[in-house]
């Protein structure tokens, strides 16, 4: 199987898959390959925080051209996976000099599947792009092709708690990855002083309470012919039983009232609102929430570098030095120049991407008694 993720989160994802019992786990670029049975497939979708998709390969082959791709796809016994009265759709990822248009590749795969059914059954399943019973993924790397079933359906970042958001919200998988990269496990106070729509807060609460990220959503494998409802229900019940109380404060604030209202709504939908403290407040008016806490935040960085951004980051550094002795501050930003205005030497910098924007997750250690 293959679990897809963001650049920089591969090792985290590998560790998560090992923790649920996956075998032969190997990290590759923006993905992790692994082996396991149906139970592992279900657990990967339900439990793993840093995966975007879980794909189950069903056929590997080499294709010379589009016609060869069509013929080899048509030879697959698609009735094993798709009901003739059901629906399907195609998703494609293409990195190739031979196959230059991903949509055309998807079209050829769709035609091959439809023609397979027409020849065997004299009728065919319908295409439903919005909510198919079975989602087929075709991955092409030069001429190497992998046909897979997408066991997740909607991307796994869609946890089911966020229907409202401000502009450019942080992806939930990326937010969970940022927190996990800090090493925080719910064992010290957590503060996001620029919380926006609250994604980091909710993901932190889910980590601290051992709440599976997939607890409030459905998965594509539930439509598969071999879906084992009893097995999934057993895994689901066990996951709910293993949740625990949060023992540290998880606090967020923002100067934008609309953002705070959205944070409240998202927290409420997550079912973890009683474990979060969210308020309208400027970072520069905040005080620490206990000793030896951690700050994780995603401040504005914009596409251009202006005096306002430089001043914001300078004030953030001053605030950290003044009031947050004993804390670790992790700042996630796509503005490398602005990060320098924090005025502190980062002890760690991790390269990541937010969409197409190259970013850094920078760690600043605020030693007790130090005035850096």
Protein model, in words:
With 372 residues, the chain is α/β, with parallel strands linked by helices. It has helices at 10-19, 38-47, 66-74, 102-121, 172-182, 199-208, 229-241, 257-270, 307-323, 336-340, and strands at residues 2-4, 23-28, 31-35, 53-62, 87-95, 126-127, 134-141, 144-150, 190-192, 250-254, 276-280, 294-297, 328-333, 348-354, 357-365. The chain has an 8-stranded mixed beta sheet. Strands 11-10-9-12-13-15-14 form a 7-stranded mixed beta sheet. Strand 5, helix 4 (102-121) and strand 6 (126-127) form a beta-alpha-beta unit. The longest helix is centred in the N-terminal third of the chain and has 20 residues, at 102-121. The model has no long low-confidence stretch (mean pLDDT 93).
Brief write-up:
With 372 residues, the protein is an alpha/beta fold.
Topology:
Elements lengths: L1 E3 L5 H10 L3 E6 L2 E5 L2 H10 L5 E10 L3 H9 L12 E9 L6 H20 L4 E2 L6 E8 L2 E7 L21 H11 L7 E3 L6 H10 L20 H13 L8 E5 L2 H14 L5 E5 L13 E4 L9 H17 L4 E6 L2 H5 L7 E7 L2 E9 L7
Parallel strand pairs: 5-6, 5-7, 9-10, 9-12, 10-11, 12-13
Antiparallel strand pairs: 1-3, 1-4, 2-3, 4-8, 7-8, 13-15, 14-15
Helix pairs in contact: 2-7, 3-4, 5-6
Distance between the termini: 48 Å
- Topology pattern, helix = H, strand = E: EHEEHEHEHEEEHEHHEHEEHEHEE
Secondary-structure-based class equals: alpha/beta
What do the pLDDT scores average to?
93
Instruction: Determine Rg (CA atoms, Å).
Output: 23 Å
Helicity level: 25-40%
- CATH superfamily of the largest domain, by name, is Vaccinia Virus protein VP39
Uncertain regions spanning at least 5 consecutive residues? none
Main β-sheet, spatial strand arrangement? 2-3-1-4-8-7-5-6
Q: Can you tell me the CATH class of the largest domain?
A: Alpha Beta
